[in-house]
Amino acid sequence: MYSQTTRSITVTVTPTFLEDQSSPTDDHYVWAYQVQIENTGNEAVTLKNRYWRITDSMGRIQEVRGAGVVGEQPLLKPGESFEYTSGTPLSTASGIMCGSYEMEDTSGELYDVLVPPFSLDSPYEIARPN
Known about the structure:
This protein has 130 residues and is mainly β. It has a single domain (2-120), classed as Immunoglobulin-like (Sandwich), CATH 2.60.40.1470. It has no helices and nine strands. Strands 4, 5, 6, 8 and 9 form a five-stranded antiparallel β-sheet that branches. Strands 1-2-3-7 form a four-stranded antiparallel β-sheet, with no helix packed on it. Strand 8 (94-105) and strand 9 (110-121) form a beta hairpin. 18% of the residues are buried. It comes from Kiloniella litopenaei. This is Protein ApaG.
């Protein structure tokens, strides 16, 4: 589990390797990640946009941008949280993801909430000495 707080918004991510959807012989590895976004502040915020940076173990980077998450732009009032699950495939047995959510507060100010970097690990990754 990975967690980070930005301006009273705590983002917690739990990645899981999906063995049943992966095919190592075809260089296809799939992870799900569960995200919880919790508003511990004193004002409501709306998640407007998302940004993901996905890096595989070969250093190849994929960037993903879009409106909201899983088709929603959730409003989080003080003390509320929003959870969702999504996923990502890679052509390598491990990788790392990080990103941010663009939030809008009640005054219309936009700001980024960081998603902590989290590791995408599978049992197929071969450890290599430095």
